[in-house]
UniProtKB/TrEMBL annotation:
Major site of localization recorded for this protein: other
Organism of provenance: Rhizobium vallis
Domain Multidrug resistance protein MdtA-like C-terminal permuted SH3: residue ranges: 306-368
Keywords (A to Z) from UniProt: Coiled coil, Signal
Domain Multidrug resistance protein MdtA-like barrel-sandwich hybrid: 67-210
Name of the molecule in the record: Efflux RND transporter periplasmic adaptor subunit
């Protein structure tokens, strides 16, 4: 092999070695002096502030009508007409059924005739009394005769009053032949049709009218929870619990648009469950909530005027399951801290112990944090769900 060829081979083999050596030097230099953009881990943070938090219990409840009226006849008779459509809105004092009024009209005419006769007898008794009074003043009529005339006049007046009251009663019975609704609301099924005998002593109503533009929701809550909430209110640490809104969820799980308000609690505790009944009034302008419907209600359980909360995403767990937060110090470095968490309310954990107001907590980007590395912090912005319906 010639000396020129051996020199060429030596040069070819030397070039890769020099190239690899240069690459290693560049990597070492890059590790020793990383770019400025990679020196800080970017994380989302939130500064903790005190705020009022209301913790709710989600409890089952049942809807009942604001007012219910059973339509019953006050007189007995044959039903001639049904004057409403089933399931329709009816007004207060609107006629619903018409009972055959002929017998009651006859009674009114008979009572009117009796009253006329009594008034005629009264007129006769008044004339006799006036004559007896004149004769008695002239010492012509005996005292006994005058007394008899006076008693006859009083008796005639009483008969007229009785006849007039009887006529009023008969007119009232005639008006009862038209059965009216005592309240405004929705009327249900007619439980008796035309030709049926309506009896004033019957146990079954003719129909039922329910006012449901407002409804009640009856729920049961633990007596201990209720007592603790009332103690907090009485201590002046919160507003009246009855003024706090109660959120209602329909059978399908949708949030009802109108919040309710607690009216009162039962005075007695159920011996079997240790709970008390609570009545909530809920506006129902669209008649969406119907009597007998089962719903769920979020009822206040406790009130915390100065609570510290962090987003749910900020809470981490160590290998033993203890909750931790990553706190950002004044030097923009992070440190882990064990905390005690409380209730989860609207995606926010209440921090019972281990955190102070004004401290900064990492919410997103915890996996980018390395010991001693400075952080680039940006404010945390929660994701707002968009309703596409």
């Amino acid at each position: 092999m010639s000396s020129m060829f051996r020199s060429f081979i030596a040069v070819v083999l030397t070039v890769p070695v020099i190239f690899l050596s240069a690459c290693k030097d560049e990597q070492a230099q890059a590790q020793a002096n990383p770019p400025e953009s990679e020196t800080a881990a970017r994380v989302s943070v939130v500064t903790v502030q005190q705020r009022k938090v209301v913790v709710f219990d989600e409890l089952p409840g049942r809807v009942s009508a604001f007012r219910t009226a059973e339509i019953r006849p006050q007189v007995s008779g044959i039903i001639q007409k049904r004057l409403f459509n089933e399931g329709a809105e009816v007004d207060r004092n609107e006629p619903l059924f018409q009972i055959d009024a002929a017998p009651f009209s006859a009674d009114v005419e008979a009572s009117s005739a009796i009253l006329a006769r009594m008034e005629a007898e009264l007129l006769n008794a008044q004339i006799k009394f006036d004559r007896a009074e004149v004769l008695s003043s002239q010492k012509i009529l005996s005292a006994e005769s005058f007394n008899n005339a006076t008693a006859a006049l009083a008796q005639a007046k009483a008969n007229v009053a009785e006849a007039r009251a009887n006529l009023t009663r008969r007119k009232l019975e005639l008006s009862y032949a038209s059965i009216r609704s005592p309240i405004a609301g929705l009327i249900g099924q007619a439980l008796m049709s035309e030709g049926g005998l309506a009896s004033s002593s019957a146990t079954t109503p003719l129909a039922v009218v329910q006012q449901i533009d407002r409804v009640y929701v009856d729920i049961r809550q633990s007596s201990m929870t209720r007592e603790a909430l009332e103690d907090l209110v009485s201590a002046g640490e919160s507003d009246d619990a009855a003024k706090l809104p109660v959120q209602i969820f329909t059978v399908a799980g949708k949030l009802y648009e109108e919040p309710g308000q607690v009216l009162f609690s039962d005075m007695s505790v159920d011996a079997g469950t240790g709970s008390v009944g609570i009545r909530v009034e809920v506006p129902n302008p669209n008649r969406q909530l119907l009597p007998g419907m089962y719903i769920r209600a979020k009822v206040p359980r406790s009130i915390h005027p100065d609570a510290l909360t962090v987003p749910q995403e900020a809470v981490l767990r160590d290998p033993s399951g203890r909750p931790q937060l990553i706190i950002v110090g004044a030097d923009k470095t992070a440190s882990r801290r064990n905390v005690q968490v409380g209730s989860l309310v609207d995606g926010q954990y209440m921090i019972v112990d281990g955190l102070s107001a004004g401290e900064t907590v990492v919410v997103l980007g915890q996996d980018r944090i390395q010991g001693g590395v400075k952080l680039e912090t940006v404010p945390y912005r929660p994701v707002v769900a968009v309703n596409k319906s």
